[in-house]
Amino acid sequence: MKREEIKNSIENIKPDFYMEKRLYEKISDAAPKKRSKKKFLIAAVSCTLSLAVLAAGLGIAALSKNNTGNDQNADGRNSVGNRFIMSVSAEEVSVPLENASVTFPVGRLEVSSDEYGIPEVNYSAENVLSVSGNNIASVTYRSKFNNFMVRDFDKFHDLVKNNSYYDIIVPYSDEYEGKGNDKRLDIMMEHIKNGDYDVYLKNAEKKSKDEYAGVDYIDYGEIKEYGIELDFNIDVNNLDDYTVVAMGLASTENYNRISSSEPVQEYTFENYFNKESEIGLINWFCLENSNALLENPEMPLSQLPHDTVTVEVKFNDGTTQTQKYDFSFNDKGNLVIDRL
Q1: pLDDT tens per residue across span 119-130
Q2: Which end of the chain is more exposed for a tag (fewer CB within 10 A), N or C?
Q3: pLDDT at position 15 over 90
């Protein structure tokens, strides 16, 4: 898949309170980076479903008693209760990686030809990695290739909670209803240009349109959970029927603090809210693996390059545990994950 296609798809989705339900809406019809005559398509599954599975599944996964890695304090004593388990999810399936080898039951990598006879590669799943465990301070993922795309949900929520994400929050109006992210930004920038929002800009420096990432809905649920202080008076007690109360404008700088605009090789998630499940949601794509298949469509899928994913978990007492996984495909096109 072309990295620019991924970047454009991701940047068109502004992170807000329901970002988990809308991630990767349009990752499709992408061409390879170096070969213009062949296409690599990823039919990405909506994160609405896959992350709902995470919420239902990861929280009940039993922790492995045999997890390998460093489990000692600096003085050599064992750290009781420090365990983690990584799970992989897609569609309605969430698989804890407790066994030595797992063949993931969702998604298949395959080569076909389009109507003009041009080979194309399709992988029909969106794989979301996540960690569950006790006493976790942070989770770091590393890929042998640049196969990760990141949206740091918890970091976003922490910034919102501390009123340090949105540059400007203005009252919601019907003119924003049913509009896409770019159109909402156009509307808000026109109001800023006309001085209509000067009262809301008193604590923020005006920026050019290119310096803003876009405009989010801010609803009653966000206000209740994060205690956002609005710059206008609104009776939230009368919002049961219509929850949107404001629009939030975030600068590109703030937006980039919680996201990667390009595929990355490594990322660390802090456990801001001391969660025990759904820590470090990250998407793994078979980008490098599929590039090799585009170069040689006749290659057996089991001979494609393997990705090595390393998960390093730091616990609240300062100890760490590390586990490595081999990501490959069998000749049927199923993703195979082996604990190393």
Answers
A1: 788 888 889 999
A2: C
A3: no
Report DSSP letters for 86-132, one per residue.
EEEEETTEEEE--SSEEE-SS--EEEEE-TTS-EEEEE---EEEEEE
- Residue 48: strand, helix, or coil: helix
Which DSSP category does 306 fall into?
A: P
How many Cα neighbours within 13 Å face the side chain of 58?
A: 28
pLDDT of 280 > 90? The answer is yes
Spatial separation of the C-alpha atoms in residues 72 and 21, rounded to whole Å: 38
Q: In a 3-state reduction of DSSP, which class is residue 248?
A: strand
Q: Decide which of 221 and 336 is more confident.
A: 336
Question: How many other CB atoms are found less than 10 A from the CB of residue 92?
Answer: 13
> In angstroms, what CA-CA distances link 322 with 54, 154, 251, 274?
22, 22, 36, 19
- Cβ-in-10-Å burial (0-12, 13-18, 19+) of 98 comes to middle
Cα–Cα distance measured from residue 49 to residue 9, given in angstroms and rounded to the nearest whole number = 18
pLDDT digits (tens, 9 = 90+) for 288-297: 888 888 888 8
Q: Supply 167's token pair.
A: 């540059």
CB neighbour burial string for 287-319, b if at least 16 within 10 angstroms, e if fewer: bbbbbebbeeeeeebeebbbbebebbbbbeeeb
